From TrEMBL:
EC number(s) reported in the record: 3.5.3.6
Functional pathway: Amino-acid degradation; L-arginine degradation via ADI pathway; carbamoyl phosphate from L-arginine: step 1/2
Protein name as annotated: arginine deiminase
Domain of life: Bacteria
Pfam (any one): DDAH_eukar
Residue spans crossing the bilayer: none
Catalytic activity: L-arginine + H2O = L-citrulline + NH4(+)
Amino acid sequence: MAHVIASADQLDFSITDLPSMPLPTEVLMVRPLHYTVDYVINPHMANQVGNVDTIEAQNEWDLVRALFDQIGLNVRLLEDHDGLPDMVFCANQSLPYIDQEGNRHALMSIMHADQRKREVPYIEQWYRQNGYEAHFLDETKIDDFEGCGDAIWHTGKRMLWGGYGYRSSLTAYESISELFDIPVIALELVDEAFYHLDTCFCVLDEKTVLIYPDAFTDEGLKLINTLFDKVIEASQYEAEELFACNACCPDGRNVIIQQGCTDVNKNLRDAGFSVHEVSTYEFLKSGGSVFCMKQMLW
Ligand code: ARG
């Protein structure tokens, strides 16, 4: 039965009650050989068409890849395709999952923008070649769902946080909750600069989250504050200009984040996290940073 929670008064469990889920051990990255800003599908891309330094973008991507490797993840690589300038943002085309028996699954996205729809079959093919079972949403009932751009695992637990409003539909989470037999906490997004949940919400460990509060409704903030012991808030500058909340903390300890997020980084260090700063300026032009540039796998 679907278990989608959209307000704090619907909460009927606490995080500690939930079954545990292994931490990811691998990460998929898509080499940005054809990355550029070619069209505008989010506010960050406005005025950036044709502005990407493609050599610099590849250098930045190499350093992000090196950091994932350095913190102990097995990095898997796939090449992008001509005419798919956003394929590098491989958090978006799927939602991977490992079940209680250790079988791997991937739910394929229904991209919101027509320009990105052709990315999905390439990612699906990679999953099929790598032992994952591919699943699909019913496109006659669900308009859009952009994978881990909007669906974010609670670290170490069989529960998802699901953003909706710009790129994913609330109805998608009913199907996902049933398919994976997990609760989903639905969060409405209300500021188009924060068009994916991963632009304003970063789970750091089981008890800690980094957010940009103005991207959420009061009800959403109540859910976040109820289910996390510690909520670190980013300023508008660090969240909107530097994508602080698009950081990635795959192991509950190491945080990879766009460089220059001074206040957030201080809070992260004070809370005991190791901070690894990296330049993703070329990707910020497209509205993405570290979290979008990878897909966590098992
Ligand atoms: N230009 C891409 C888009 O608008 C950026 C995607 C960034 N990904 C993310 N998970 N926030 O779709």
